[in-house]
Amino acid sequence: MRRYLLLALAALITVGVNAQSKRIAYMSVTPDGGGLSLTLSTGEAVVYNFTALQTAISNISSGTVSPAERIAWNAKTIAPQTFKGGWNASTNSPALSATATTQGDYYEVTTSGTTSVVSGTSTVYSVGDKLLSNGTTWTRIAGVTLGTTIEQGKNLFNVAAVQTGKYVSNSGDGSIGTATGFNLSPVIPVSPGATYTLSGLTNGLQYSIRFENASGTYVAGSAISSTSFPFSFSVPASAAQLVFTCKFNSDATQPALVQLELGSSATAFTAYRAPVVTGVQGGALKAAELFPNSTMNGKALVTADQIANVSTLSFVSPKNLFNPASVTANSAVSTGGDIGTFSGFTISDYIPVTGGAVYTLSGTTGQKAIQFASAAKAKVGFAVTSTYPFSFTVPATATYLIFTAKRSDESVISSTLMLEAGSSATTYEAYFTPYVSGPVQAIQLAAGTKMAGKTVATTDQLPTGTPLPINYTKILAVGSSITDGVGASADSLKYRNVLQATLTAVLGRSITVVNGGLSGQNSSANLSALPSQLAANNPQVVLIEANINDAKSTTAGVGRSTSESNLNSMIDLVIAAGAVPVLWTAGPLDVTTGTGGAFSDTKRLQLNATVRKIAAARNIRLIDIGVHSAYNFLLLADGLHGNDRGHRFNAECLASGFLRN
């Protein structure tokens, strides 16, 4: 019974709408001794379909739930919510009727009242209630917060989600054709009547745009095309989304700077990023403890007991004064001490120093120059060295220094580069943001307190999980044949390679995802192989799959206690190697067909519960694909392994989990 109630909730509560397919994403539903609890992570919103939920629970209670119904529940698309404004229930303003319009539209009651014009029966509406449309009727939701505020990036075009081998016909009928060498954009939601600008495509080639309604049906007569970019256009009043040809067969590669943005003119290119939360406006977010040195908008955060009696505060500064996240590419200090443009070089930020004090630079190689600067950042001296550690005395008139952090013959900034006070090099420590420390009188911040215009979140409103390393570039993925890529029709479509391409595009640096999947092997084999995999690859992050082979119904599977022991030991090995572990749960399993018949779904659910338990106990980042995918068998190739759609689904969920760092 509990399993099917979890299924109903996972199928009927949609969290975080994906811009392309509106599928379920980013939800954590945890079975426990008292029933079910729903928690949200940053970037998530909730839509409640109460009528469908009541029907589902009724079916569960009467024992009429079938596998076909489970598939139908999970395949159902629930429209994203659209806030239409406030509603005065006393005067029915704006005027609403019993017939609702667009599914997902909602109003918030701003003035209470009693009326029958919406529901057909006399109903009391209180301030804070919501009216949610299912496309036919309005549903009153008493005092429910429909979600947090989501901020969409400027560039709406996600290059990692293009559809290869497809294009919009130039015939003007909006038809979609197939041909080698073409790419079609993902489906992109747009606002009817709004103006958008498309840029970054090859001038002289004719690219076409197809407009669709919310159901994906072509809006007749709306197709447009252009051979000159930037190209600005208005969305037809009846359109809700669009697709466009984003690569011609004569383009050698996918154009790298394609941008679709709101407005009538093109602005500087920015890479696509997934929507993110910009403010906490309600909802029960998972409790967590902020890490020391946490920041907001680049500023150190302090706790309530650190605000009063400022004179007693002390500031904790890092030993390593060099911040690798605050550098400038294609710039360097010349051997004459001047700052200039040099291709392939990287320069540090201006670092505050004490005039007359001795500092030491270590952990790097090659000839590098240092400029000493005044408070106005004018050069007052310089030094050049190719020997490390290098100790030097700052000129008495200097307030800052800035130095070459990477030469053009170095592929990346050294991971052990350190600038510290003193005349000798000590053991490397990573940079952290200075923070406030000291025993002071506690005070209580008022509810709704803001910082830089954004609502301040308390520790019970933030997700858990160890932060990923700054500027990580290599991920080792360990697990079963799912990680090995079985089920994908091409190597490029395996989730590892889709994840690699997505992170590379979004983060703007090359990311490598190494295959550590062992087909047919359980977590005991993963544990045995891990030491050599870590030594051979030296990853900064290790992505650990909940190995589905542990859930085999035969003796090839392992017990729950063995899975827990193996996972904990793997985490210990990863941390000891200086990497950050990330866990993910096993996706859907159809035991009635194909390869899935050799497995136990009960054991899969127990395995996922074990993974969640470990993640919570050890503060390990968890990407709960077992919940995200629910029982959506449409993602499976053979009852166990993901098909191309399933691999992309896994990659998108994992990418979202990585990008909420």
Automatic annotation (TrEMBL):
Protein name in UniProt: SGNH hydrolase-type esterase domain-containing protein
Ranges of residues in domain SGNH hydrolase-type esterase: 477-648
Superkingdom per UniProt: Bacteria
MF-aspect GO terms: phosphatidylcholine lysophospholipase activity
PANTHER family: SGNH HYDROLASE-TYPE ESTERASE DOMAIN-CONTAINING PROTEIN (PTHR30383:SF5), THIOESTERASE 1/PROTEASE 1/LYSOPHOSPHOLIPASE L1 (PTHR30383)
N-terminal signal peptide: 1-19
InterPro entries: Ester_Hydrolysis_Enzymes (IPR051532), SGNH_hydro (IPR013830), SGNH_hydro_sf (IPR036514)
Coiled coil segments of this chain: none
Keyword Magnesium included in the entry's annotation: no
Record organism: Fibrella aestuarina BUZ 2
Family annotation (Gene3D superfamilies): SGNH hydrolase
Keyword Signal: yes
Entry keywords, A to Z: Signal
